[in-house]
C-alpha cells in the first residue's frame, strides 16, 4: 500500500502526469515502447541489481560481464536490433550496469575512421562478439590534450608493419574501459613515425589478448587500474606496449593512409570525424547526466514528503520536511533544472540532426557553432547536474549517506561526466574562444551563426520591471540573461584587446583572462537555456495543465539563476537593488507554488522502483520498512570473523592485566 | 621499491619558496614544542609494525572493519604502554593509527566514557566506568532513530518505569523508532547509552539516558528482547559498524538510568534536573572539533591537488614550448588557491573556538555560563559554514586533479566520503544555520529596542545610527580599501549587518501578515540562512585578519597576509551581489576586487607547494599516490594498480565462466 503521506501528494496534482511523461518521451508511442523494454529487462533475474550495494569490485565486474553476454541473447529473443526504436531504452533499463560499453566505442571508431575494407573485416566479428574491443586514447600523463600523447607507432617498411611502443611510464594507456580484464582488441592512438618523421596521432587496431585462452599477447602488459569512486562494474585498464607489431592494414585509414613504400597520404575531409567527437558530448547528456539527476530528484522529493521532522505549528503533527522553505529551496530548483536541461537537450539534438544532414551534403558551415555549443553545454550541464545530485544527496540527511538510498551511487557516477569526453574548464574555454571570435565579427558588422546573433544587437538599458510579478514575464528575465551574457563577453573581449595592445603576447593575454572567459561561456549557455525553456513553454499545449506547470518551472529556473548570482545582474545596474528584492520575493513565492506539484513532477519521470534501486525513493513511500529490510541483507550481518579474532580476546580481559 | 629521488618540479617549487614551512607548521600546531611532540607520537605509530596493513582501497568492507577493530584494540593497549593521557595527544595517536578515519571504538571513547563521567552517579561510575575503561564493556551512544535525527524531541523510544520490579521497560514501538546510525552499535558494542522518552506514574518526562546491555558478555550474542545489527553499506565509513537497535519489552534495573541530574525514585517519583545548559557544553565542544576537521580535511585535499598540479604537465601555454605545469594555468590557480586560503582560515577559526571553549568551560565549573549562549549560537553556524565550504572544496580539489582524482589512489574520494557526513551529523547544517539566525534576530531586536549587544554581534549596535543618515552609496563605498585586511573586515561586517537587518525585517513583515510565529519563521528561513552565512563569513575573515598581527616572522606574515587578502577578496567576488546591493562596494570597486584576486593568484603561485608542505601531513596519513611528498606520481600509480583485486589472476574467472562459453556458441 502507498504511504498516505505520498498518496495525498498525488491527489492534488494540477496537471495530467501521464501527459507530461509522454511529452518527456517525445510521444505516447515512445512511452509505450520504453515501458515494454524496461519491463522485459527488469523482469529478467539475470539483470537484477538487487545485491549491487553489497557486492565487491570483483563481483560487480563479473555480474556486468554476465549481463553483457545475456543481453546478446535477450536482444535476439525480443527481436531488438541496434537500429530499432527499443535500442536506446536498453541502457536506461539496465541503469548502465553492464560490461562492454567500450566495445560500442570500438565499433563506432572503426565505422567512422576505418576504410570500407577495414569495416568489412572487423565490424561483423565485433557484432558477433567474436572479439571484444576497447578504445585506448588517454595515457597516464595525458588526457584532454591529445597532441601530447606519447605512445609511438613506427612504420617498418621491411615487414610492412607498425611497431608500437610505450616509451615511458607516463605514456602507458590508462583508464580505457573494458581493457583491464575483458578486451581482446583495442584501438590504440599513437604518434605515427615514418622514416623518423612524426605525422601526429593516428588510430591502430591492436590485439592484446589471445582469442583462445585470453592470456596477454607477447609484448603486452595490461591490467585493471584499481578501485575508483564508482564504475565498480567496469574494468578500466592500463596497457603497455613493447615492440608490438601490427600489420600495415591495422591503421584505420579512412582519412590517412601509409602506402607500402612509406608514403603518407591524406584523403577526404576529417571534419566529419571532428563532428563525431562533438556529437558524443551531446549524446551523453541524456543517459549519463539527465537520468541520474531525474532519479536523484525523484528519490529526494518522495523522501521529503515521507520524512517528518520538527513541528511547523505547535500542537500539530511533525511537518513533512518538504514543507520547510529551506528544503524547497534546496530541491525545487534542481527539479526545474532537470526540466530545463531536458528541453535544451532536445534543442541540441535537433540542431545536431540538422548539422549531420548538412555535413552529409558536404556543407561544413555549422561545425564551429556545433562544436562551441556541444563543448559549452557538455560542461555546463554536467557541472550543474553533478552539483544538483549532490544537493539531493545531502538534502536527505543521514539516510542519504546510506548506499541503500541509491544517491551515493548516482552521485559518484554522474561526477565522472565532468571529466570524461573533455575536461569541463577546457571545454568552456573552447566555447569562449568561439564567442570572442563571434563578438569581434559581430562588432565589425560581419555575419555570425544564429545562436550568437544576439551579440550583434547590444542595446544598453535597464531592466524595465516595476513589481515582483513583472519578473514572471519571460521577456523580462530572458533579456536580463542576455544582457549579462553580452556584458561578460564584451568586457572580456575588451580586456583581451587591452592586454594585447599594451604589449602582452596573445597566449599570455589569453591565460590572464581565462577566469573571465569561463564565466562568459557559462553566461552564454545559461542564457540559451533560459531562452529555450521559455520558447518551449510558449509552444506547449495548454490542455491538461501542462503548460502552466512548465511555465512555473521555467520561471523558477530563471529566477533561481538570478537569485544565486545576483552580482552579475547588479554589476552595471541593469537590475537595481530594489528590483533584486522583487526577484527574491518572486522566487520564494514560486517555491510554495511548485511545492504542491513536486511529487507529480517527479512521478512524471516515470522511473520504476527497480530503476531507482532506492530504499528512500520507491513509488509506495514505505521508506523505513524497506530500509530496515534491506539493511538486514547486508553481508556485515553475517557473523564476522572480527569477533572471534579480535573482539573476543579484547572483551575477555586481555586488557585487565594492564 | 628502490628509493626514488624527489621529482624535479617539486624540488624547484620548494627551493623557490619565500618562507620556511616549518615556521608556519609551528603556528598551526600552536608552538614548536607541540610540533615536536606531535611528530614524536606520529613516529611511535608509523614505526610500529603492529599498525601496518594492506592498502585499504583493496579490502572489502568486512575486511576493513576487521582491520580497524584490530588496530583499535592495539591502540588502547599501546596508549597506556606509552603513557599517553593528554586528550590532544590521544587524538593525534588515534588519528595516526587510523589515518584520519573513523573506527569502531570512536563512540565508546568519545561518547560512552565521557557520558559516564559527566552524567553517571558515583555508584554508577563504580559499576560501569572501570569495566568500560578496560574494554570489558564496550559501549555506544544510541540517540538517532530511523525516523528522527536532529529534532531530538521527536524521538519515539520509550522507557516506562515499573515500580513493582523497580525496572525500566524499554521499547521501540514503531519501525521509525528503531535506533539507527550509532557507530559501533552494529557488531562491536555490548552496551549502549540509549536515549528514550521516560514515562513514570503515567506521565512523559521527556528524553533521558539509560545504560542498556545489548549483547551477552562472553558469547557476544544479542540478549533476548534485543534486535541489533549493521545498517549496511554507506558512502564511506566502511570501517564503522553503524548499527540498528530494536528493543521489545527489554527490562533494565532502575539504577541503569543515568541519574546524576534527573532521577526516578524507587516509587516512581520524578526529580527534575537543575539546569540543562550543561548539555550545551558538550555540543559546543563537538562542533568545535568539526570546525577543526573541516580545516584538516580541506588541507589534505589541497595538499594532494596542489602537489599533483605541480607535477602534472599538460597542453601548451606558449606555442612551441614544453607542456607547462598545470598549476601555471590561471583557471587551475583560481580553483585551488582560494581553497588553500580557506583551509588556513578554518585552522585559525578552529583554534579560536577551542580556546574560547576551554576558557568558558573553566567558567562553567565555577558556574558562570553567561557567555555560553553566544558561543553555542556561533559554533552552530560555524560548524555549518565550515563543513559546507570544506565539503565543496574537497570536491573542487578532486575535480582539479582530472581523471586521476577519480581513482581511489588519489585519496581524495576517501577524504570526501569520510568528511561529507559532517554536514549532517551533530546537527544538520541548515538547522544549525537557523539556530545561529535565531540568535542574530534576537540580538537585532535587542538593539532595536535600545539595548546594546556584545561579542561578535556588536556590529548590530551601529545599525540604528546608520539608519538616521539616508544611505549615500557612493560616499560610503569609497571607505573600503581592498589591500587592507582590516578594511575588508569592515566590509564583511557591513554585509552581515545588512543581511541580518533584511532578514529581521522580512520576518517582521511576515509576522504582520500571518497568523503564527512558526509560519513566519519558515517563510523567512531562506533569508535567515543567508544572514547566518554572512555573519559566519564575517567572523572567519575577522579571525584570520586578527591572526596576522600575532605572527612574528616577517616572511611568514607576508605570505599569510596574501592568503588572508585572497580569502577575503575571493569571498567578495563570489558574493558581489550582496556588496553591490547594500552599496558597500561600487561596480568599479568590484572590478578592482576581481582584478586583485587574479594578481594575488600570481603572487601566491611560487609559495603554493611550501604552503601545503606546512600542513605537514605524512605520506602514510595523506594516503594519496597523487599527493606524495616526493612527487613520483606515475611510477607509483602503476605499482598501486597492480595490487587491484581484479588483477589477482592474469585471466579473470569471468572469462571461463561467461566469455568463453558465449564465444563458443556463436
UniProtKB/TrEMBL annotation, chain A:
Residues 17-132 form the Acyl-coenzyme A oxidase N-terminal domain. Residues 474-651 form the Acyl-CoA oxidase C-terminal domain. One of its GO terms (biological process) is very long-chain fatty acid metabolic process. InterPro entries: ACOX_C_alpha1, Acyl-CoA_ox_N, Acyl-CoA_Oxase/DH_mid-dom_sf, Acyl-CoA_oxidase, Acyl-CoA_oxidase_C, AcylCo_DH-like_C, AcylCoA_DH/ox_N_sf, AcylCoA_DH/oxidase_NM_dom_sf. GO terms for molecular function: 3alpha,7alpha,12alpha-trihydroxy-5beta-cholestanoyl-CoA 24-hydroxylase activity; acyl-CoA oxidase activity; FAD binding; fatty acid binding. It comes from the Eukaryota. The active site is at residue 421. The keyword Cell inner membrane does not apply. Its main location: other. Residues 274-436 form the Acyl-CoA oxidase C-alpha1 domain. Keywords: FAD, Fatty acid metabolism, Flavoprotein, Lipid metabolism, Oxidoreductase, Peroxisome, Phosphoprotein. FAD binds at residues 138, 177. Its cofactor is FAD. One of its GO terms (cellular component) is peroxisome. It is found in: Peroxisome. Belongs to the acyl-CoA oxidase family. This is ACOX2 oxidase. It comes from Onychorhynchus coronatus (Royal flycatcher).
UniProtKB/TrEMBL annotation, chain B:
FAD binds at residues 144, 183. One of its GO terms (biological process) is very long-chain fatty acid metabolic process. Pathway: Lipid metabolism; peroxisomal fatty acid beta-oxidation. One of its GO terms (cellular component) is peroxisome. Its EC number is 1.3.3.6. Belongs to the acyl-CoA oxidase family. This is Peroxisomal acyl-coenzyme A oxidase 1. The gene is Acox1.
Amino acid at each position: 500500500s502507498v504511504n498516505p503521506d505520498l498518496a495525498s501528494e498525488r491527489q492534488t496534482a494540477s496537471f495530467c502526469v501521464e501527459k507530461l511523461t509522454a511529452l518527456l518521451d517525445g510521444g505516447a508511442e515512445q512511452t509505450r515502447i520504453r515501458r515494454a523494454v524496461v519491463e522485459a529487462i527488469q523482469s529478467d533475474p539475470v539483470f537484477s541489481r538487487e545485491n549491487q550495494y553489497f557486492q565487491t569490485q570483483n563481483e560487480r565486474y563479473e555480474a556486468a560481464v554476465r549481463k553483457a553476454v545475456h543481453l546478446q541473447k535477450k536482444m535476439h529473443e525480443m527481436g531488438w536490433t541496434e537500429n530499432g526504436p527499443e535500442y536506446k531504452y536498453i541502457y536506461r533499463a539496465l541503469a548502465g550496469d553492464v560490461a562492454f560499453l567500450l566495445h560500442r566505442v570500438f565499433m563506432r571508431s572503426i565505422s567512422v575512421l576505418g576504410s570500407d575494407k577495414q569495416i568489412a573485416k572487423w565490424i561483423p566479428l565485433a557484432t558477433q562478439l567474436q572479439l571484444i574491443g576497447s578504445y585506448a586514447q588517454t595515457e597516464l600523463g595525458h588526457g584532454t590534450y591529445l597532441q601530447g600523447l606519447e605512445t609511438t607507432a613506427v612504420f617498418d617498411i621491411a615487414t610492412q608493419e607498425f611497431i608500437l611502443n610505450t616509451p615511458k611510464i607516463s605514456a602507458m594507456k590508462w583508464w580505457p574501459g573494458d581493457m583491464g580484464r575483458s578486451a581482446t582488441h583495442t584501438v590504440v592512438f599513437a604518434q605515427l613515425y615514418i622514416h623518423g618523421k612524426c605525422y601526429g596521432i593516428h588510430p591502430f587496431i591492436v590485439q592484446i589478448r589471445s582469442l583462445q585462452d585470453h592470456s596477454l599477447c607477447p609484448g603486452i602488459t595490461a591490467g585493471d587500474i584499481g578501485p575508483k569512486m564508482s564504475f565498480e562494474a567496469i574494468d578500466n585498464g592500463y596497457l603497455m606496449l613493447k615492440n608490438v607489431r601490427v600489420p600495415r592494414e591495422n591503421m584505420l585509414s579512412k582519412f590517412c593512409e601509409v602506402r607500402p613504400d612509406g608514403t603518407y597520404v591524406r584523403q577526404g575531409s576529417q571534419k566529419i570525424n571532428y563532428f563525431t567527437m562533438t556529437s558524443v558530448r551531446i549524446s551523453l547528456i541524456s543517459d549519463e547526466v539527465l537520468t541520474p539527476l531525474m532519479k536523484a530528484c525523484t528519490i529526494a522529493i518522495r523522501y521529503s514528503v515521507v520524512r517528518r521532522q520538527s513541528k511547523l505549528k505547535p500542537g500539530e503533527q511533525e511537518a513533512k520536511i518538504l514543507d520547510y522553505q529551506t528544503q524547497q529551496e534546496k530541491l525545487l530548483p534542481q527539479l526545474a533544472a532537470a526540466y530545463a536541461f531536458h528541453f535544451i537537450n532536445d534543442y541540441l539534438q535537433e540542431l545536431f540532426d540538422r548539422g549531420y544532414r548538412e555535413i552529409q551534403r558536404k556543407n561544413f558551415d555549422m561545425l564551429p557553432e556545433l562544436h562551441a555549443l556541444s563543448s559549452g553545454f557538455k560542461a555546463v550541464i554536467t557541472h550543474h547536474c553533478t552539483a544538483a545530485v549532490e544537493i539531493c544527496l545531502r538534502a536527505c540527511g543521514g539516510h542519504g549517506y546510506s548506499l541503500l538510498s541509491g544517491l551515493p551511487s548516482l552521485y559518484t557516477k554522474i561526477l565522472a561526466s565532468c571529466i570524461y569526453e573533455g575536461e569541463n574548464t577546457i571545454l568552456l574555454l573552447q566555447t569562449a574562444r568561439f564567442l570572442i571570435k563571434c563578438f569581434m565579427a559581430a562588432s565589425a558588422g560581419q555575419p555570425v551563426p544564429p545562436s550568437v546573433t544576439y551579440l550583434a544587437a547590444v542595446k544598453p538599458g535597464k531592466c524595465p520591471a516595476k513589481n515582483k510579478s513583472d519578473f514572471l514575464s519571460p521577456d523580462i528575465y530572458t533579456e536580463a540573461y542576455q544582457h549579462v551574457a553580452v556584458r561578460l563577453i564584451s568586457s572580456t573581449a575588451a580586456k583581451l584587446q587591452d592586454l594585447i595592445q599594451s604589449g602582452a603576447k596573445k597566449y599570455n593575454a589569453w591565460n590572464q583572462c581565462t577566469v573571465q572567459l569561463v564565466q562568459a561561456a557559462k553566461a552564454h549557455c545559461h542564457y540559451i537555456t533560459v531562452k529555450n525553456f521559455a520558447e518551449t513553454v510558449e509552444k506547449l499545449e495548454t490542455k491538461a495543465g501542462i503548460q502552466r506547470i512548465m511555465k512555473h518551472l521555467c520561471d523558477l529556473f530563471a529566477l533561481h539563476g538570478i537569485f544565486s548570482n545576483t552580482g552579475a545582474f547588479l554589476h552595471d545596474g541593469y537590475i537595481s537593488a530594489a528590483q533584486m528584492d522583487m526577484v527574491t520575493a518572486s522566487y520564494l513565492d514560486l517555491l510554495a507554488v511548485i511545492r504542491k506539484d513536486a511529487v507529480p513532477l517527479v512521478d512524471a519521470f516515470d522511473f520504476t522502483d527497480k530503476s531507482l534501486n532506492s530504499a528512500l525513493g520507491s513509488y509506495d513511500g514505505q521508506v523505513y520498512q524497506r530500509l530496515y529490510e534491506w539493511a538486514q541483507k547486508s553481508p556485515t550481518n553475517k557473523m564476522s570473523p572480527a569477533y572471534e579474532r579480535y573482539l573476543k580476546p579484547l572483551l575477555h580481559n586481555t586488557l585487565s592485566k594492564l | 621499491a628502490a628509493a626514488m629521488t624527489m621529482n624535479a618540479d617539486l624540488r624547484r617549487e620548494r627551493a623557490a619558496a619565500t618562507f620556511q614551512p616549518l615556521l608556519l607548521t609551528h603556528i598551526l600546531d600552536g608552538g614548536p614544542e607541540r610540533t615536536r611532540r606531535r611528530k614524536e607520537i606520529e613516529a611511535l605509530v608509523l614505526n610500529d609494525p603492529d599498525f601496518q596493513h594492506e592498502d585499504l582501497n583493496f579490502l572489502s568492507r568486512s575486511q576493513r572493519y576487521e582491520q580497524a577493530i584490530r588496530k583499535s584494540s592495539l591502540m588502547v593497549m599501546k596508549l597506556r604502554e606509552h603513557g599517553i593521557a593528554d586528550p590532544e595527544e590521544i587524538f593525534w595517536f588515534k588519528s595516526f593509527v587510523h589515518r584520519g578515519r573513523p573506527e569502531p571504538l570512536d563512540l565508546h571513547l568519545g561518547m560512552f566514557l565521557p557520558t559516564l563521567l559527566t552524567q553517571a552517579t558515583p555508584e554508577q561510575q563504580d559499576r560501569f566506568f572501570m569495566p568500560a575503561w578496560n574494554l570489558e564493556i564496550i559501549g555506544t551512544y544510541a540517540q538517532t532513530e530511523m525516523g528522527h535525527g536532529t529534532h531530538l524531541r521527536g524521538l519515539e523510544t520509550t522507557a516506562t518505569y515499573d515500580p513493582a520490579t523497580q525496572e525500566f521497560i524499554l521499547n521501540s514501538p514503531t519501525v521509525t523508532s528503531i535506533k539507527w546510525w550509532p557507530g559501533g552499535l552494529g557488531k562491536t558494542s555490548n552496551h549502549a547509552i540509549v536515549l528514550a522518552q521516560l514515562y513514570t506514574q503515567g506521565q512523559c518526562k521527556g528524553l533521558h539516558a539509560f545504560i542498556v546491555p545489548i549483547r551477552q558478555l562472553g558469547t557476544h550474542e544479542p540478549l533476548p528482547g534485543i534486535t541489533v545489527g549493521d545498517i549496511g553499506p554507506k558512502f564511506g565509513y566502511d570501517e564503522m559498524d553503524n548499527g540498528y537497535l530494536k528493543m521489545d519489552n527489554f527490562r533494565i534495573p532502575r539504577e541503569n538510568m543515568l541519574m546524576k541530574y534527573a532521577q526516578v525514585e524507587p516509587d516512581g517519583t520524578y526529580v527534575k534536573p537543575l539546569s540543562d545548559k550543561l548539555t550545551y557544553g558538550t555540543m559546543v565542544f563537538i562542533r568545535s572539533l568539526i570546525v577543526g576537521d573541516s580545516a584538516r580535511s580541506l588541507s589534505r585535499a589541497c595538499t594532494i591537488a596542489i602537489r599533483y598540479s605541480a607535477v602534472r604537465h599538460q597542453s601548451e601555454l606558449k606555442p612551441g614550448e614544453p607542456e607547462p605545469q598545470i598549476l601555471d594555468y590561471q583557471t587551475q590557480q583560481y580553483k585551488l588557491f582560494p581553497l588553500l586560503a580557506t583551509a588556513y582560515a578554518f585552522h585559525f577559526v578552529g583554534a579560536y573556538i577551542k580556546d574560547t571553549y576551554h576558557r568558558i568551560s573553566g567558567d562553567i565549573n565555577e558556574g558562570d555560563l553567561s557567555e555560553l549562549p553566544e558561543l553555542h549560537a556561533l559554533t552552530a553556524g560555524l560548524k555549518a559554514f565550515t563543513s559546507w565550504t570544506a565539503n565543496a572544496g574537497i570536491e573542487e580539489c578532486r575535480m582539479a586533479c582530472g581523471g586521476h582524482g577519480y581513482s581511489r589512489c588519489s585519496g581524495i574520494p576517501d577524504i570526501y566520503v569520510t568528511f561529507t557526513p559532517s554536514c549532517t551529523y551533530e546537527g544538520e547544517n541548515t538547522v544549525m544555520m537557523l539556530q545561529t539566525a535565531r540568535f542574530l534576530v534576537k540580538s537585532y531586536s535587542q538593539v532595536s529596542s535600545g539595548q546594546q549587544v556584545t561579542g561578535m554581534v556588536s556590529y548590530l549596535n551601529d545599525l540604528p545610527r546608520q539608519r538616521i543618515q539616508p544611505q549615500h552609496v557612493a560616499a560610503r563605498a569609497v571607505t573600503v580599501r581592498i589591500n587592507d585586511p582590516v578594511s575588508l573586515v569592515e566590509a564583511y561586517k557591513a554585509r552581515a549587518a545588512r543581511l541580518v537587518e533584511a532578514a529581521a525585517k522580512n520576518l517582521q513583515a511576515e509576522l504582520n501578515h500571518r497568523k503564527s510565529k512558526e509560519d513566519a519563521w519558515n517563510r523567512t528561513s531562506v533569508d535567515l540562512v543567508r544572514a547566518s552565512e554572512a555573519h559566519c563569513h564575517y567572523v572567519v575573515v575577522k579571525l584570520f585578519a586578527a591572526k596576522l598581527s600575532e605572527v612574528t616572522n616577517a616572511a611568514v606574515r607576508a605570505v599569510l597576509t596574501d592568503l588572508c587578502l585572497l580569502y577575503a577578496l575571493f569571498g567578495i567576488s563570489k558574493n558581489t551581489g550582496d556588496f553591490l546591493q547594500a552599496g558597500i562596494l561600487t561596480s568599479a570597486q568590484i572590478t578592482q576586487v576581481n582584478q586583485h584576486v587574479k594578481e594575488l593568484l600570481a603572487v601566491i603561485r611560487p609559495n603554493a607547494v611550501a604552503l601545503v608542505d606546512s600542513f605537514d601531513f605524512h605520506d602514510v596519513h595523506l594516503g594519496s599516490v597523487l599527493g606524495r611528498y616526493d612527487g613520483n606520481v606515475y611510477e607509483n600509480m602503476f605499482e598501486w594498480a597492480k595490487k587491484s583485486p581484479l588483477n589477482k589472476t592474469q585471466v579473470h574467472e569471468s572469462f571461463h565462466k561467461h566469455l568463453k562459453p558465449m564465444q563458443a556458441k556463436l
